[in-house]
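From the pipeline queue, job 12 of 40. The input is one protein chain; the requested action is below.

Action: predict structure.
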Amino acid sequence: MLGASVASREASAQMAKAPMRKIATEEAFATPELAKAWLEIARSEPNSSLDIPTGILSIFDNPRPGSNQDRFRRQLLDVDAERIRDMDEAGVDMQLLSVTIPGVQIFEPARAGELAVTTNDHLAAAIARRPTRFAGLACFAPHDPVQATREMERAVNALGLKGFIVNSHTQDLYLDDPRFAPVLEAAQSLDCPIYLHPRAPSNGMAAPFRDYSMGGSIWGFGVEAGTHAVRMILSGVFDRYPRLRIVLGHMGEALPFWMWRLDHMAARRAKDGRMKPLSLAPSEYFKRNFAVTTSGFESPDVLDLVIKVAGIENIMWAIDYPYESSRDAVTFIEGADLTASQRASIFHRNAVRHFRLS
């Protein structure tokens, strides 16, 4: 037994010294066609969505040269030289690419479907040029479920994409709405995760977020995406689709902090008849149906909480490129109080398993 223990410690020490593969799982891109279409809708309908002042106009409408917004625009549109150079300098082996907010969901259904096809083709071509460095998540138009499911199948079976990106609400509706059932059925059937990414709060909840720049990543994004996930849990979506898998960024969009109270209040409301009883507690759905990434959230205390609530097997590393620093994201996990095996799980093993990466 003593010899086995020594051998185990030596193996762990060797693993800690060896270069560790790093797969970043929430890395944004855009296409010139999308950027042009976003600006057209932003200029013609400037008050149609809080996404316009919080993102589209600041990044794509002639940002000040040298500003962060100017850099974001350049790096979002680049899926070649500058992105690869940044990856190499930070020691990142692979990025899992997904279209930045608001994706195609801001457009009317027919236009959204067309842009989803061209965006996914653009992504697949970038991956084909560098198949060891990039993998990708497909976008689609949820508000046209027939076209959406067709594009989901094409993206996985023909283009080789590894899952889907949904930039949260579509026409102010969330994925618990029955009209999106075909989308959830397709994701479950294809056995591919949906990355539920934030965007600015929907029009029904946007008013308090318009002041103090609250609509974006400082607060509104997380509140909005967390609300979306809770709606899916409490509506019984995961009783109807028990094999459906959802990925949440930013350490779980605050759900790990709320999980005890979600369990407590869901049980109370089911008991007194205010809510339809669920088969499982919210925390059990969270461990069974969700995975969490670390994108843009480099807090050791929060990481400890997420490990306890989600389980180490459900946590994946992410940078949130280009909005966050690749080097800082690497340094955070390399310096975290983790075993070598835990670090490998977060850096690459879980991503390989959840997204079926080579």
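Job complete. The chain has 15 helices and eight strands.
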